[in-house]
Structures are given as structure tokens and as C-alpha cells.
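SAMPLE LOG
Freezer: B-3
Tube label: C17
Construct: single chain, 269 aa
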Amino acid sequence: MMRKLVLVLLVLFALPAFATDRANPACHEEIPCQLGDRSYHVKEPDGWDGTSPLPVLLHFHGWMRQGSLIVKHQRISGATRRRGVLLLAPNGHRKTWDFWDDDTDDVAFAAAVIEDAAKRYPIDRSRIYVSGYSYGSAMAWRYACENGAGVAALLAISGTLRQDETCPEAPREVRHVHGTADTVMDFPMGPGGDRTFPVALWREKFGCGAARKDGPWQAVEWLTLERITWRECATGTVTLDLHDGGHFIPHGWIGWQLDQLLGRTPAYP
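STRUCTURE (predicted):
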């Protein structure tokens, strides 16, 4: 699978780095951009000047959804468009993702989405963020696991891989949020009731030491999250946000993470 990915990227990198195609209204927001027999959606940030390099959020939709929903979703596109971030929303084959093991074409497809977008927009390669919700979160984990070397941060919501996976690559930073009452993508409780187990894979991959409890925080007053961080790592950092709810995208969570990653004062929305 990785050999296939390398071949795809070699072909794509041989193409011009940036050819302005954004004037074509047939490829924006709810109208998908075609990429071979697959497609993706794109949403520009508000007030973009047309030339400044753009941070990117590649977001994988949930099961039986499509990218057309993501570019309208207030907790996703509502966050990116206010923060100068280009939103890319690939469409899963048959409205789902193949994340179960490394024998998947979806990683190469998602990498090709970024390269195709780079022909249309001047993307900032140092600020590529990969996100997803539910099945899409598990797919975001898979992408970071197999092709994460160029990813600045994984922003994962209510979905993981098995914590005994062996990942050949990793992003520079991991941020994961999960509800302890989630019964759709069950909260992965660890041995002895270890609530930090949802990010055990990345803690081991990064060689992290002791955790630090940063205490409760809120992007909105009606949802309190408990933040645990691992900063004393050989490489990278890991953040785990927990709440006592179920299976949903917490209000303000994506925007809060983007604000921190972009050096902005966290704000809602």
C-alpha cells in the first residue's frame, strides 16, 4: 500500500505546484472537485485575498455522510472560514472509509486531495491539519498513522484506531476529544479504568512521559472538558480532551484547537 502511495505522490509532485483554478465556480463548496473517479469539496475562508498561503484542514466526514455536509457544517466550516483556513472535505467511497488496516486506498486518495488542492490554492505546507468525526476520526488516525510526516496536527473527534497498532509515521502533534458516555464509537477505556487510554498509541509513538492535568476548560458555557496533556515527549505532543457526553462534535472544539495551533486567542465561534 505504501509503495502505491509513493507512486501516486511522485506523479503529483511532477505537476506544477500552483495553477490558479479557483475562478472555476464548478468546483467549490457543495459542488465537488473531481479527482479521477473520486471527488472532494473545498471551502475558502472568509475574506481571503486570493494570494496569501492558506493553512489547510483536511476533514473526513462521518459514516453515510459526504463532504457536501462538511462545507456547510457550522462546527467545522464555521470554524475554518473565520480563521483563514482552507477546508478540504473528501468524499468517502460509498459514503464510508476503509480505515481498518493499512491495506487501504483511502490514504493515497486523501494525499492526492491535498496535492490537487495545491494546484488550485497556495497552501501552507507547514500548517496542514487532519481532522475527522466518528468513522472520519478513525480515518484521520489512519491517515496520520500511514502518511503523517507532513501533518502539523491530528484533530480527532470520537473515533480511534486500535491502540496496539504500529504506525510507520506520525503527525507533529495530536489532539483528541472523546465523550466518556460514547456508545457509538465506544470510549476506549483502558485497563483499570484508565481514561487516558484513547491516546495510548500516540503516547508510546512519541515516547511521552508523565501526563499533566490542565484542568477544566470551556469553549461554550454549556460544555465542560477536562484537558490532559503530554508535553514531555521525545517527539511531538499529545492532548486529550474528555467530556461526560456521548457521540458528537463538541461546540467550539475545532475552532478552539485551530486558534491555539495558529497562535490566536481562543474564541467562540
